[in-house]
Write a structure and sequence with these properties.
This protein has 220 residues and is an alpha+beta fold. Helices cover 20% and strands 33% of the residues.
Length: 220
Amino acid sequence: MPRARWKGFLRLSLVSCPVYLSPATSRTKSIRLNQVWVPRSRPAEPVDMEEHQQDVAPISRGRGISQGAAELAAEAEEEPEYAAPATRIALRPHDPHTGEEIDRDEVRKGYEYERGQFVTFMPEELNTLDIESSHTIDLTTFVPRTEVDPLYYNSGYYIYPDGAVAAEAYRVIAAAMTQTGVASLGRLTLRRRERMVLVEPRGAGIALITLRPGGQISAV
């Protein structure tokens, strides 16, 4: 059984059946880089040229004193070795002016409506903005499949019947859409957001495609 992303009902007129959605595509996991602390060993002690005079002398006979001293100095200036493995660090909220650390209880989420001007929200206020889902996809508006511009396509899902009892009603809905050659437009709440969706027959099954809002499509 494919992994269910959403469960509800698919309804066409008087025919309704329980269904669930499963993603039709997969996404490559993005690479996230973390800020880490890489402690270094203590800097090396300065090179005592008198102490290394015996090492410089043989070099100086072949290539000159200045060249031999430069090579020793370059060795001394090599990047120090790391003293310990990298450790992930924690970024703590702080006052950008004083650098003083801020208590996390004083941190809010806010929307910047003008530069430097914010309207803030409490967690309970954000919870009230969640959209209630009817858990039903109503197939009431039908259009020819070719009338929907592919630029509006967002994410694709397969609709599966949820249980053996739903299979017959599912086949009736899929067959009706296939015979008429149309797709249906509807609305669905996914991840606390209401989305316009396109439902269409796909082989022996049914597919659902979420659509982008018109404001996200740029004109030529």
